[in-house]
């Protein structure tokens, strides 16, 4: 009788449904700013400076995004999610003579102040892969852009508002439902493969053309910090 009972028990065990694999919610939030200072000067063939442009602008950004239903044992995939974002663009753009006692060409002088929100041109991004015994997340903030018609110039370095975060699968499986693993990310906390350029030379001088050349001295500084939370949902 015992072998029959054992056989029935084994059959029942083999036919029992497997426990569902755990799912996780990914929450990605961050805050940062990009500050650019640029001085352009129009230089004549004689070496004299005729006119100048002064740019001093700052983009301040913030975002929060989340993705649900992630299974680490699933095949690699990419996901998008709606996000909340807060952003501001401020600064000045001044065109004048090179020296205070000189006169700029007619119609050149202007003094513009900018204070507006940034737009978002694409949503945040998430890609998840399993590498050995680790889950690796690749995340990007929404892509920010200066509003069309804004006179102060800046091309936001959106490629820098991105991060990688890695977690051991054993640690994720050990999380209780509702518990979270938090990973710090950002320019001072780079993840695997992250290469941040917090200071960039954005100068773009030109060669002589039609009697003029452009001298350009531009510096762009960018920093941000944030967190990636992996929350056990089931």
Q: Which oligomeric form is depicted?
A: single chain
Level of helix content?
under 10%
Q: Give the SSE order as H and E letters.
A: HEEEEEEEEEEHEEEE
Q: Percent of residues in beta strands?
A: over 45%
**How many domains comprise the coordinates?**
1
**Mean of pLDDT:** 88
Largest sheet descriptor: 8 strands, antiparallel
The coarse overall form would be elongated
Could you please describe the fold and organization of this structure?
- The protein is mainly beta.
- It has one domain (22-232).
- Helices cover 9% and strands 56% of the residues.
- The chain is built from 2 helices and 14 strands.
- Strands 1, 2, 4, 5, 11, 12, 13 and 14 form an 8-stranded antiparallel sheet that branches.
- Strand 7 and strand 8 (134-140) form a beta hairpin.
- The longest helix has 14 residues, at 2-15.
- The relative contact order is 0.23.
- The model is unreliable at 1-13 (pLDDT under 50).
